[in-house]
Amino acid sequence: MKVLIVDDEIDLCLLLKSFFTRKGYETTCAYTLAKALDTLYSAPPDMLFLDNNLADGLGWSMLPAILHSFPKLQIFLISAYNPPIPPIPEGAQVTIIEKPISFSELENRLHI
After folding, report:
1. Is the pLDDT of residue 52 over 90?
2. What are φ and ψ of residue 29, in 5° steps?
3. Where on the phi/psi map is residue 49: left (φ > 0), alpha (ψ -120 to 50), or beta?
4. Per residue in 1-20, pLDDT tens?
């Protein structure tokens, strides 16, 4: 299973990457929205962790376009600032997680 982590907090990306790598997931990090979109469309993951406040844009604003292109993608919207939640189509696999992220909560939500 492939995971894409999108966050400008490099330490958080590395912690999440280490967590998922230990669980056997193939994990990639992107620190900007532009890099995230490039990676998403060139090597689609099974699971996406998407921060909102990125240096080059608001990650959550891309949710409709991402879901349009990848309707079965499991998406975790992450943020420390409680931004407005974008429209989520019925049946979409979208979960909102507040920072700081709890690894035990991740294990419970993902059943790993």
Report:
1. yes
2. -115, 145
3. beta
4. 999 999 999 999 999 999 99
